[in-house]
Every structure is written in structure tokens, then in C-alpha cells.
Amino acid sequence: MSKELIRLVNCSMAFDGELVLDNMNLYFNDSEFLTLLGPSGCGKTTTLRIIGGFITPTSGEVLFDGVRMNDIPPHQRQVNTVFQRYALFPHLNVFENVAFGLRIGRTEEKEVNGKKKKVKVRIPQDEIRERVLEMLEVVSLKGFENRRINELSGGQQQRVAIARALVNRPKVLLLDEPLGALDLRLRKDMQSELKRIQQQMGITFIYVTHDQEEALAMSDTIVVMDQGKIQQIGTPEDIYNEPKNAFVADFIGESNILDGIMHEDYVVEFFNRKFKCLDKGFAPMEPVDVVIRPEDIDIVPPEKGQLRGVVTSVTFKGVHYDTIVDFKGFKWLIQTTDYHPVGETIGIILNPDDIHIMHKSQYSGMFGDYSSYSEEYEEMDDVTMLDEEEEGSSREGGNEE
Amino acid sequence: MKNKRSLFAVPYVVWMALFVVAPIIMVVIYAFTTAAFDPTMGNFTGMGVYLSIFTRSFELAIIATLVCLLIGYPISYMMAKEGPGFQRVATVLIMLPMWVNFLLRTYAWMSILENNGLLNQFFDAIGLFDLINAIGAQLADDPSQYVPITYFRMIRTQGAVVLGMVYNYLPFMILPIYSVIVKLDRSLMEAAQDLGANSVTVFRKVILPLSLPGVLSGVTMVFVPAVSTFAISRLLGGGTHMMLGDLIEQQFLGGAYNPHLGSAIALVMMIIVVVCMWVMNRFGEGEEQAVML
Q: DSSP for A356-384?
């Protein structure tokens, strides 16, 4: 087990009476790449600013190595931040920007003649120079020392911001949507660059983003947040494959979310059919949310399908086609490498491991663009549910043409 | 005039030509001619007698500018730190005196500073003079020779002139500095804090250097009118501390009527001011670029 560095205990934050962070409990381990992921306004940046010391939580505790840090100002904390818009000093060149923290030096408590004294530790000039140049090399900006900040591209400014923070050798680096202002190509490059730097330096990165791809690509741990609450914590694989609720399922990747009923362990019903799945531990007949990832769905000829539907739209996405299929008024998104033209009737097969079951939550029914509830289904819903056992029944496949 | 919109600039161009460029040309012509409009350098060569007025003018203007800076910078800084409500009120309070006529304001200062003016009456009322006289009489070698004071001499001093200039030109120092500081990116200060700077260091290493362009334009806007001021020195300085503005005024309106000499003096002053400003702007160029980013 890695060592715990920072812990938030029952942290809440309110601005003007509005709760932005709701009783947050979270810990951060040594040498971990942890991402706070969520839509804007979910409290992720607030969490970061609490750790950085720019705001003090309304209630709760911030612990660094078990020591309460709530009232310690930012300049006395062993963390450094990479700001959203970099916040580089426009009046200083690249070298001086990176050297900023080193030139200030840190106050340290030292024992002098048996008395504890605060001593300002200054770093000698040649050491500053050495460390700055070394760090510029880490971020691949060797030779840029004398450039002015406004002469740099967005990606280069980004690297300066990272170097400026890392040169102080913080235990934890906070990154607030650092790639938000970069174009797609640069963002991809910087993602692997950041991951490399994190592994090379062996320190904790706490990374804030609303971009799920970014989070999946870089993180050891992802914390999905919404409305000031943690929705799920886990590895990227966990979060993607076993989303805890409809919010997480929708936010991470694309998904078809349906209403279902869990009949017993490993058996779920939706679309008036029973399907085998891998989930258990639900109450008998418990209403659930069913998640089916668009890339997990296998398209087969109509007569072989468990469900039948009509293609209503096809979008070419490069690697695959985004195919929207209408199942009795429910639109599903299916990602497939095969082209199926609009109007074609197709069948689909769902394997047990394609079906993910989630407990109902406050988010049920709010998500799933491609499973929008239709009036037609509402009418059907009034009819007593039919329990059809036989495989490949054609009752579901009817289309509205 | 490729752009049709540039037609809108025509009235301005005409205005500038008529009332800015033409007068400057006239000043230059007057400065280099005699009363009969014969070319001469005499207006300049004879200017040495006014050297003391030149030095006093620049001296007082520099002092007034520095005082404005010393008072204005902290006010601007505090204003920028406060909330928008406070900022609005403070801006109005700073602008308010400017709505009153310049001469009226200066006359008001006369009645405040006069020997039997408001301030001396106030000091008298609180017994300040009695106290000073009592102590003075005690300390004097020969108490019978001690002359009790009944007022402080405030008017007709250089201090009063500086005071008048500071009072009149302070808003021109505060507003440019304030508008630069208030626009500074908050995240720059947070970044500095994050890198270990306490609030003093944040000010010294980030806010101060980035506010220099505001300081430069504030200094310009105070120094230029201060060096050419005329009514203030006459009203508050009692005419004993003549400044360049008064000297020039005399050449045009006063008894010493000589517009050719007046033009020459004005021209020399203009050149000195332009050179000063040019040097200062060169000095501040780097920072200015930085803030335009």
C-alpha cells in the first residue's frame, strides 16, 4: 500500500449559502495520478483550491500527513499548482518564471540553541540555475530560458507552468484543467508528456478535468464528481466498466441507459425480455438502470437477433460508424465498424458481459440521449408485462414503418 | 482613404490641424522672430535670467508628482483590493472635486490656508497656539523677548503651492494606477502565493512591476500640468514663487507683454517635457509590453 499524503474529512464548502462541496471525504496517496472528473460546477476545482489553500472549507478538515492544514496559507504548503490559464508572470522571462519559487526560498523551522526558530532558507544562485535548467529539460524546453512569455505557444507556456511548479519539488502537484486551452493534437501529446513527468518525478498529481478521455488516459484513480458529491472512485477500468449510477455511465463514455427489473441474480428484464447478465446482489424484482455500451453491441441479421430495430441515422467517425437504431421508439447508439444504411432492419445480440446493472439513483431517467423515452412505449407500459422466455422472439422486433 | 469609415475622422483631423498643429507652428515662428518678425535667436539666448524660474518649476513639479505618487499608489492599491461597491464610491469621491471649477477649488484652499483662515482658526480654537507659546516661553533664554505666535504661515509658501498641485492633480495619479491594478489577473497573485510568496513578496515581485505602466501614465499626467501650472503658484504662492506658467502668462497677458519671448519659453519647456517623457517611456517599455499581453 502506498502512503497517504492528503485527506479531506467531511469537507463542505458554501459560497453565498450555496453548497458547492457536500461533505467530501477523500484521501490522496503518494505517487498517485488522481483525477477529479466532473462537469463544470461539480466542485472539482473547489476541491483543488481547498488543497492548494486558496479557500478554506466552510466545515470539515484538510489533513496533510495527518496534520490539520485548514488555516495554513498557500505559501506555506508543500503543494504547487498548475493554473488553468497558466498564470505565468508576463514581466519575467522563462528562466525567471521557473526560478520564481526558488528565489523566494522557504521558511523552515530549525532548532537553534535549543529554541525553535523560523529560518528563511535561501537557495544559492548556482543551484537555482542548475535546477531551473534541469527542469526545463524535463519539460523539453531546453534553450528557451531567455524567451519572453508572450513569445511562446500555448503548449510551451503550459510546459513552463509545469516546470515552474515542479522545480520546487512539491510532494503534490495540483493541475487545474491544464490542457483546456490547447488544441486536440497538442492535448494528446501533453497527456502522455504529463504521465511521463509524473512517473519520472514520482510525485502525486491531482488533476482536475471535465474531459473523460483525458481522465481515462492518464489516471491511476478517477474520482467522478457531480453536484459537490463524489459519485464514484475507482481505476479507469472500474469506472468505465462498472459505473455506479446513470450519471457516471453517461459522463464516462457513451452509453445506452434503460429501465430494467432485476428478477434474480444474473437475470435482468428490459424491453419485456429477460437477459442473462453478470450482476448479482440486487433485491428480487428491484427496478434498476441497465447500461449497454454502444461498442459492446453486436449487430446480426434480423432473424438471428434478440432485438430488432431500424437504423435511423449513420455518422462516420473515422474508426467506426455511430449508428442510431430505433427499437420501438427507443433510440440506441451502436458503434460498429460495419456500415448499415438508414432504413435497414438489423438484429442485435447482447452477451451477458455487455450488460451492466446499476441501482436506481437520483440520476435515473436523466441520461441516455439515445434511449429517450417515447410515447409509444408509455402506451405499451400500461399493458401488463409479458414474460417471454424463448430466445430470439420476434415480438420485440416489430418496427413502425 | 480606402476605408469609408475614415471619413468620420475628417472633423477630428481638421480640428487637430487648426487648433493643435497650427498653434505649435505659430509658437515656433514667434519663438524665432523679433517683434518685427525678423529671424533671431535672441529670445533663447536671453533666457538665462529665468533659469531660477525653470529650476523652481521643475523642482516643485517633481516634488508634487512624487507626493502624488506616494499618496496615490497606496490609495489605488487599496481601492483595487476592495469590492466593486467600494470601488464605485471611491471613484466618485475622487472625481467629485474635479466637477468644481479649478480656480474655485484653489480659492477655497486660500481661505483654508490664510493666516486668519480656517485651519489657523481651528488650531487657535483647540488651543494649539497657547500650548506652543507656553512651551516656547519656558524654553526661551529670555522669556520677555519671546514673541508669541498667533498663526502658522502656510499661504505664500512653496509648500502651499505643492499642496495645491497635489490636491488638484492627485486624481490623475490615482485613476491610471488603479485601473491597471484592478485589471491584474488574480491568478498571477495566487500563482505567486502558491510558489511560496507571502503577501509582501507578492506585492514586490508581481503587483508592483506589473503596475508600473499605470505609474508611468500617472506620473506623466501629473507632471506635465504641474510643470506648466500658473494660477496655483500665484494664488497659493502669493506671487513670490513664480513658476513657468506664470512667466509665460505674463508675456502674453501681463505687463511684460512679449509673445515672442513667451513662445520661446513655452517651446523650451515643451522640449524638456517631451524629452523627460520619452526617457521615462523608454525606461518602462519592457513592462508596458508585458501588460499589453
A: EEEE--TTTTT--GGG---HHHHHHHHSP
Which residue of chain B has the CA closest to A164? B195
Contact at CB, A91 and B194, closer than 8 angstroms: no
Q: Which position has the grid cell 505674463?
A: B250
Q: Is the pLDDT of residue A390 over 70?
A: no
The C-alpha angle B78, B84, B87, rounded to 5 degrees, equals: 45
Say if the Cβ atoms of B293 and A104 lie within 8 Å: no
Which pLDDT does position A270 carry in this prediction? 87
Closest CA relative to residue A39, chosen from A194, A236, A224, A245: A224
Which among A89, A390, A379 is positioned nearest to B205, based on CA atoms? A89
The three-class DSSP label of residue B147 is coil
Which member of A74, A76, A83 has the closest CB to residue B187?
A: A83
In tens, the pLDDT along B169-212 reads 999 999 999 999 999 999 999 999 999 999 999 999 999 999 99
Interface predicted TM-score of the whole assembly (ipTM), two decimals: 0.77
- At residue B174, what is the residue type? I
Please answer yes or no on whether B190 and A90 come within 8 Å at the CB atom.
no
Structure-block grid coordinates of residue A262: 432485476
CATH number of A254-397: 2.40.50.140
Tell me the CATH number of domain B16-80+171-292, given options 1.10.3720.10, 3.40.1190.20, 1.20.1250.20, 2.30.30.40: 1.10.3720.10
Backbone angles phi, psi at B120, to 5 degrees: -65, -35
The letter for the amino acid at A133 is L
Tell me: pLDDT of A52 over 90: yes
